């Protein structure tokens, strides 16, 4: 284990890099439907195309994640973070040059292949501090993500309103190259201390190990469901805002503002969730976070106007921010350091397949029932999952 000062230096550097990546992601992702309209996709098919171009990234990323995770354990987490940062930067820049929806589909597939910065960085963060401080370190890391989530949508909406979407992709590519350079020159590969040396294993052996530990499979399912829920909403958010205000004019900027306000609210509660999880149990904290998120998403399905929707987004932000860092802290808690890169790789696979399923499901619900029903279904789903967490983990006191 790295010394305390060097370990926290890693945590802050990686948090800064992840903040930049989060800004880039949220500058772009909520506004891809608007970009598709700019590329000539019709209003009647934009929901389907949004689901497709979102999902291909996560399908490819899900396939590659165990490979990158295993390489992170055997070749080094730092190397994998640099690889991912450079390739994602290239994919962003290429996206700025696309001329039709199929070319966008191709660059999104490349982005999925390149993915892997976040699990590599998260693993380095968890290994850079003593085990008893893992929750705090991952809470700091998550705060960086939230800050990016606050800045990104608003910045992306402003740039899109002034000069259009394409310059946003070029800026994002540049930020990724800078983040890769920071990791290369300043971040140190953390040591695993007295942990067992890394063994070369097959994916089947890794999966059999995870299946033998029920708590890990429960966590992977939670990763999958949570990301599916989040990505059910992102592709249609700008479209829903346009529907609520009666026009798509300015919808991207307004959607970005609403997302930023919700993310800002989340910065207030993220450390509260981390402390609560460490003190009372990660699964109990996940239960409460899922309950709150589900209830307020359900209420957002009621189309009472922009003010209603935006106010509820503040409350959604306060609760949803707790889920992923709590899952990550629990995953680190239940996993040996020598195996952690592979487990985080599997968590990324669960994330990515959730991200793949979510947009496709949302586009189907939108096409057949209407946009507001996506919020209704997502809210009900998360409340049901919260009930399952309570029954399987909290009630049985397995989290303590």
Automatic annotation (TrEMBL):
<feature type="transmembrane region" description="Helical">
    <location>
        <begin position="253"/>
        <end position="274"/>
    </location>
</feature>
<protein>
    <recommendedName>
        <fullName>Major facilitator superfamily (MFS) profile domain-containing protein</fullName>
    </recommendedName>
</protein>
<keyword id="KW-0812">Transmembrane</keyword>
<feature type="transmembrane region" description="Helical">
    <location>
        <begin position="105"/>
        <end position="125"/>
    </location>
</feature>
<feature type="transmembrane region" description="Helical">
    <location>
        <begin position="137"/>
        <end position="156"/>
    </location>
</feature>
<dbReference type="GO" id="GO:0005886">
    <property type="term" value="C:plasma membrane"/>
</dbReference>
<keyword id="KW-0813">Transport</keyword>
<feature type="transmembrane region" description="Helical">
    <location>
        <begin position="312"/>
        <end position="331"/>
    </location>
</feature>
<dbReference type="InterPro" id="IPR020846">
    <property type="entry name" value="MFS_dom"/>
</dbReference>
<dbReference type="InterPro" id="IPR036259">
    <property type="entry name" value="MFS_trans_sf"/>
</dbReference>
<dbReference type="InterPro" id="IPR011701">
    <property type="entry name" value="MFS"/>
</dbReference>
<feature type="domain" description="Major facilitator superfamily (MFS) profile">
    <location>
        <begin position="8"/>
        <end position="397"/>
    </location>
</feature>
<feature type="transmembrane region" description="Helical">
    <location>
        <begin position="168"/>
        <end position="187"/>
    </location>
</feature>
<feature type="transmembrane region" description="Helical">
    <location>
        <begin position="286"/>
        <end position="306"/>
    </location>
</feature>
<dbReference type="Pfam" id="PF07690">
    <property type="entry name" value="MFS_1"/>
</dbReference>
<feature type="transmembrane region" description="Helical">
    <location>
        <begin position="220"/>
        <end position="241"/>
    </location>
</feature>
<feature type="transmembrane region" description="Helical">
    <location>
        <begin position="80"/>
        <end position="99"/>
    </location>
</feature>
<feature type="transmembrane region" description="Helical">
    <location>
        <begin position="343"/>
        <end position="362"/>
    </location>
</feature>
<feature type="transmembrane region" description="Helical">
    <location>
        <begin position="12"/>
        <end position="36"/>
    </location>
</feature>
<feature type="transmembrane region" description="Helical">
    <location>
        <begin position="368"/>
        <end position="390"/>
    </location>
</feature>
<keyword id="KW-1133">Transmembrane helix</keyword>
<feature type="transmembrane region" description="Helical">
    <location>
        <begin position="48"/>
        <end position="68"/>
    </location>
</feature>
<dbReference type="GO" id="GO:0022857">
    <property type="term" value="F:transmembrane transporter activity"/>
</dbReference>
<keyword id="KW-0472">Membrane</keyword>
<keyword id="KW-1003">Cell membrane</keyword>
């Amino acid at each position: 284990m790295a010394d305390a000062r060097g370990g926290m230096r890693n945590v802050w550097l990686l948090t800064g890099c992840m903040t930049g990546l989060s800004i880039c992601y949220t500058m772009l992702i909520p506004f891809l439907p608007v970009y598709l309209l700019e590329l000539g996709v019709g209003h009647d098919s934009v929901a389907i195309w949004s689901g497709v171009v979102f999902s291909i990234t996560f399908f490819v990323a899900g396939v590659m994640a165990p490979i990158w995770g295993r390489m992170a354990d055997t070749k080094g987490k730092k190397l994998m973070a640099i690889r991912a940062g450079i390739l994602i930067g290239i994919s962003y820049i290429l996206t700025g040059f696309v001329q039709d929806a199929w070319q966008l589909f191709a660059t999104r597939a490349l982005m999925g292949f390149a993915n892997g910065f976040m699990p590599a960085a998260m693993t380095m963060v968890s290994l850079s501090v003593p085990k008893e401080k893992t929750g705090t370190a991952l809470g700091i890391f998550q705060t960086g993500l939230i800050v990016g989530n606050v800045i990104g949508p608003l910045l992306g909406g402003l740039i899109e309103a002034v000069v259009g979407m394409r310059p946003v992709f070029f800026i994002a590519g540049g930020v990724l190259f800078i983040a890769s350079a920071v990791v290369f020159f300043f971040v140190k590969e953390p040591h695993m201390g007295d942990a067992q040396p890394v063994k070369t294993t097959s994916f089947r052996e890794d999966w059999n190990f995870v299946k033998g530990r029920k708590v890990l499979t429960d966590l992977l399912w939670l990763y999958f469901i949570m990301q599916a829920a989040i990505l059910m909403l992102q592709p249609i958010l700008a479209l829903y805002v346009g529907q609520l205000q009666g026009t798509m004019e300015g919808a991207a900027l307004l959607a970005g503002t609403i997302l930023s306000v919700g993310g800002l609210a989340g910065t207030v509660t993220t450390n509260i969730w981390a402390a609560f999880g460490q003190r009372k149990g990660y699964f109990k904290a996940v239960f409460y976070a899922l309950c709150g998120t589900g209830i307020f998403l359900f209420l957002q399905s009621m189309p009472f106007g922009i003010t209603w929707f935006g106010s509820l987004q503040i409350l959604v932000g306060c609760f949803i921010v707790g889920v992923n860092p709590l899952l990550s802290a629990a995953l680190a808690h239940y996993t040996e350091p020598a195996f952690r890169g592979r487990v985080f790789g599997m968590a990324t696979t669960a994330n990515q397949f959730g991200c793949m399923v979510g947009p496709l499901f949302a586009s189907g619900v939108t096409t057949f029932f209407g946009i507001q029903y996506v919020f209704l279904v997502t809210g009900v789903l998360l409340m049901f999952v919260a009930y399952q967490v309570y029954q399987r983990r909290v009630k049985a006191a397995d989290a303590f």
